[in-house]
Design brief:
With about 375 residues, the chain is mostly helical. It contains 17 helices and no strands. α7 runs antiparallel to α10.
């Protein structure tokens, strides 16, 4: 039995109303709200393989390990299995083994950091997408809802125009721009004294539109031979400049946010039931929703500053996982992490292996994500509210 079921069973209608007089401001009978909660929880659990959740997790973990191995040996410089084991054995376990030095440097300084960055970005965008879709109760919501993508793009473009050539500086400027955009989005409802979810979404649309216009202006004044191409390429997403230092900084922010979102998945699940039901179950809506949105936005902003605004991951992966295990976030979010990491690692492997030039990540995620999303629509598992 889930923790939300235990909470509902312990809080009877009379007890919840007496303990929290504001739990039912609409005047709807508490017994009716509890009945609705149980009905919606049943709908959340409906999926193709909800009863086989441990098996689904095991399969997802196996896929992740397989994609990890494929990514390590695949690229412009392919590695044999024995060569891979010799390099890892020498550097990770202190074994006295002979290795080919160029292959060792390539694997340790380029391929492994890039693999870890791709996996972490995929996990971050997937769990952020699942969080936003649950909090806003809308399956069409993506992690870029609050304008973080547009803000990060403006920040990165500004750094490029100012002649800041280092990737660390561009990533830092992108992070600052993304967080500034989200701060502006959150400030608008406060200024208007309207803290509703709809107003927050509308504020994100406003800030995103302004960011798009500002980015267009920066492109217009950019040098078309050098700066413009760099801005456009950054917008399309790439991990070719990721190294251990940038990966460490990214992980220090992203990993704690992901773990906190996982720890809060029970409360996020209750939020997805609706405001009245969440109040009946004793959830502080303003605080819980604010914390979850902050964590999801922060993990999205750090992902964008490392790899650029990569499309479709935060939208399609939660839908795919929802098809398998249902909308219950206690099951959906862990699976989304595994599937998102596998997806991005696979896409990045394709990006550096298909041609002699680097293929932008958003191009590949678009080509893969679009037909996958159409397939989900045809299966009738995307319920537009």
């Amino acid at each position: 039995m889930s923790r939300t079921t235990e909470t509902a069973s312990k809080a009877t209608p009379n007890e919840s109303t007496e303990a929290n007089p504001e739990a039912n401001p609409t005047g709807t009978p508490a017994a009716t709200l509890v009945a609705k909660t149980e009905h919606r929880r049943t709908l959340l659990a409906s999926s193709l393989f909800a009863s086989s959740y441990p098996l689904i997790l095991l399969i997802a973990l196996t896929i992740l390990l397989g994609v990890t191995y494929l990514s390590l040996i695949t690229g412009r410089y392919p590695l044999e299995l024995d060569e891979l084991f010799r390099i890892l054995g020498k550097n990770w376990f202190g074994m006295d083994l002979k290795v080919y030095k160029p292959a060792e440097n390539m694997l340790l300084t380029v391929r492994i950091p890039r693999l870890l960055a791709a996996g972490l970005i995929g996990a971050a965008l997937a769990i952020a997408g699942a969080t936003f879709q649950a909090v806003f109760r809308n399956p069409l919501v993506s992690p870029y809802l609050l304008g973080v993508s547009q803000g990060a793009s403006v920040g990165a473009a500004s750094a490029i125009l100012l002649g800041v050539g280092t990737s660390i500086a561009i990533q830092g400027s992108a992070l600052a721009g993304g967080l500034a955009a989200v701060l502006l989005t959150v400030s608008i409802p406060r200024l208007l004294k309207n803290q509703s979810t709809l107003m927050l979404v509308l504020s994100g649309v406003i800030v995103g539109g302004f960011g798009t216009a500002a980015l267009g202006a920066l492109k217009f004044i950019a040098n078309p031979e050098t700066q413009l191409a760099q801005i456009v390429f950054w917008q399309m997403g790439s991990l070719q400049d990721v190294r251990a230092e940038a990966l460490t900084q990214f992980a220090l922010v992203a990993v704690p946010c992901i773990l906190l979102l996982l720890a809060m998945r029970w409360r996020i699940n209750i939020l997805s039931l609706g405001d009245d039901e969440a109040r009946t179950l004793g959830i502080n809506l303003t605080r819980t929703r604010g914390i979850t949105i902050l964590l999801a936005t922060l993990v999205t902003a750090t992902s964008v500053c490392i790899g650029g605004p990569i499309s479709w991951v935060g939208l399609v992966i939660p839908h795919l996982c929802r098809l398998l295990v249902g909308s219950d976030t206690t099951k959906l979010m862990p699976l989304s992490i595994l599937m998102g990491a596998s997806f991005m690692m696979f896409v990045d492997t394709l990006a550096r292996s298909l041609t002699s030039a680097e293929v932008p990540l958003s191009v590949l995620t678009g080509f893969i994500g679009t037909p996958l999303y159409v397939a989900l629509l045809l299966l009738g598992k995307v319920r537009v509210k």
